Amino acid sequence: MIGGGIAGLAAAYRLRELAAAREFPLDVQLLERSARCGGALETIRRDGFVIETGADSFLSEKVAAAELAQRLGLGAELIPTREIYRKTCVVRAGRLVEIPAGFSLLAPAHLGPVFRSALFSPLGKLRIAMEPFVAARTSDEDESLDSFVTRRLGREVLERVAQALAGGIYTADPKRLSMQATMPRFVEMERAHGSVVKGMRAAEQMRASKSSEVSGARWSMFLSFKNGMATLPETLAARLGAAIRKGSDVVGMSRNGDAWRLALAGGESIDADAVICAAPAYAAARIVATIAPAAAKMLGEISYASSATVNLTYRESDFDGPPRAFGFVVPASENRRIIAGSFSSFKFEGRAPAGAILARAFVGGEMSRDMMSLSDDEMVAAVRDEFRELLGVSVAPGFTEVRRWPNSMPQYEVGHLARVAEIERAAAEIPGFAIAGAAYRGVGTPDCIRSGENAADAIFAKLSATK
To answer: Which of 90, 414, 428, 429 makes a 20 to 30 Å CA pair with 349?
Structure first.
């Protein structure tokens, strides 16, 4: 196993589960180049604060993460979002404006909240209202977010909402971001209903009918863990124990008879019957360069963006009425130095001591690469300037935590799924080898877990069939 992010950890644990269930002898080793496992799931617990430096939650409708948590005995640790603060704002003309109720990423289910909102101009609202009458696209070719949203809902929706929300998730350029790879449900809505607004309404009605048929507790859209997202990789790492070798940087692979020989940066080598590579695509490209040059070339064509999070602690009295919301996103058209902000202590219980607020800002991404050249102090100063102008808080934070994530976010550009299909075909031709991770079919925690588990299932099937 190459790579100790959540995909690699999930794959290694899944192999252990399968081997135990089938009473199959299997030695699993996980090689992680850094000093810690978990990748972008990192939690700092300090002075009563639970600080997320990477992902702070996961989508419950994608079940892989919640199911893994249950299998690990972590079901009681799962917590939902705080519904009373469940709203998101967007910066418009230098102030925070609430995104209309029922507006999901790029389209509304109902026009009433849109017409009452200060977010759009009268012409922009009229353009949104006309969306159900816009002819559906007949081509099956991939399309950019920029093209899709402008074509169906108009440029105001793109520039004032969709770009910012997508930027918060994918840190991407909307002119290059693939709709099919990132937001396929909206593509399907247009195909099935001829309109995304009609599709949103149909989805809402379906959810309502299902909700009326189901009794008992139901999860919110987003979940986390009482002690932070790192609970999941920490538990997996503890279960895997000595199977994990940190500080092991795999630089190449070669055949050694019927097995693989993995070359490490320090000159050591490890033999293995099968390999799952859950490293970033650019690292995977280097590792397989000599054995599968065509696959390596395609892997290397997946580009990445860098980003950073800046967490800041405050007292409630430091704010003149903080916005009681999960957070806010910042459109590129606002020309600001952050791409989003969130309030962790409003989003989840137990993230800050009583009377305190835990906030964080997101910096960098594809549309704001220059911010990554700042020092940590300069980055904090930039975030404080933005918070002062947008939130009215000028008091120095109690403390700050800056975490940089260089080349961490794969860019799902137009044509991404076709490229991934080619990569998967090429990888399938390599005996005893599989790939997994955020670079392929989803960047969220459940997507990465599913990717790792699928790779483990495939490799275990091959290994068990030959013995």
So the answer is: 90
